Amino acid sequence: MKLLSLKFAAVAVFSAFSACSLTAQAENIGSVDTAFKLIGPDHKVVIEAYDDPKVNGVTCYISRAKTGGISGGLGLAEDKSDASIACRQVGPISFTGPLKQQDEVFNQSLSILFKKLRIVRMVDQKRNALVYLTYSDKLIEGSPKNSVTAVPVDRSTPIPIK
To answer: Mean pLDDT highest for which of 88-92, 113-117, 136-140?
Structure first.
């Protein structure tokens, strides 16, 4: 009975995390090989696009290293923390609702052991701009490597804040 209760608790925790997961999905734009691997996929730099789920008309492009070889091909390798971000207005900007001053827009696992690539949106009210930061973290020790970009919003479209 105790084992059954633990299983239900684990499912409940997983469901809670899944329900809180962010709606932004990565779209693979392309990649370039950076190192040849005889066995398994080559090391690469991949470019992915993320549409901001709460800001229509803004897309963020991330370039990041992807480890190849046998461990990379099996999904067991830990990708490097290096990443670059460029967010751009790709259509008319509108908001699905009020934004938090700072909110995580997207996260993606970079290893099987708790390393994630994160994209955080911050609102610069004074300049009526959206600032996006990408960085990676680990459960124990994060990385100071980061990249930042900003998307100005026309003054006639004020950014709604919660």
So the answer is: 88-92
